[in-house]
Amino acid sequence: MAAVRDIYAHYVLNSLATFEETPPTLEEMLARRRASVELSLPYLIADAEGETVGFAYAAAYRPRPAYRFTIEDSVYVADGCRGRGVGSALLGELIAACESGPWRQMLAVVGDSANLGSIALHRRFGFELMGNLRSVGFKFGRWVDTPILQRALGPGDSRLSGAGASP
Q1: Strand, helix or coil for residue 109
Q2: 84, 122, 123, 159: which has the fewest Cβ within 10 Å?
Q3: Residue 76 · residue 7 · CB < 8 Å
Q4: Is 56 exposed, middle or buried (0-12, 13-18, 19+ CB in 10 A)?
Q5: CA distances to 14, 39, 104, 163 from 150, in Å
Q6: Which helix (H) or strand (E) holds 139?
Q7: pLDDT, mean over the chain
């Protein structure tokens, strides 16, 4: 998890992919991982030649019970490893793992409407752009948009079977 923290810290300090401004501690990253795992959501780490090159996870979208079938994905690839298919491999595995669970919708809340790589990655996996929240973040001295993308998992909203259950 120290390598995961380091990958994420790069994005915190150098990009608009996350709106955090201070890198979280290792303890905080472990707590975030634990929160996903305790909900039976996947937390994936990609390794290549013994080096951690990316991570992806699903988390609850919102804490209120009505949102219990909606999750949010996050995908981060180590600096210098983008463009090698790491993000695609992670997102593909993440979606497959989530489709085997009770969840019906997956959202991608992308930091920065200019983050064309993340938007393209999600669109390749069937996410549709649902809208753009304008100027909801402020980082690096400027206002930043947040595109929202969505895709159905499994049967999506086409049937209610199992909708009374808790994930």
Answers
A1: strand
A2: 159
A3: yes
A4: buried
A5: 26, 20, 11, 19
A6: strand 128-139
A7: 95
